[in-house]
Amino acid sequence: MDPRQEPVEARLQEAVLDLAARTPIERVTVTQLARAAGCGRDTVYRDTTDPVDLLIRVLDAKLNTVVPTPGRGSTIAEGELALLTHVSQYAAVYRGALVEAPSGRVRDMLARVIAKNLTSWLERYPELAPEPAPGAPAELSREILVAYAASGTVGALMRWLDHGDLGDPEQATTMMLAAAPRWWWDREETER
Question: Which of 5, 14, 65, 77 could disulfide-pair with 185, CB 3.0 to 4.6 Å?
Answer without folding.
Answer: 77
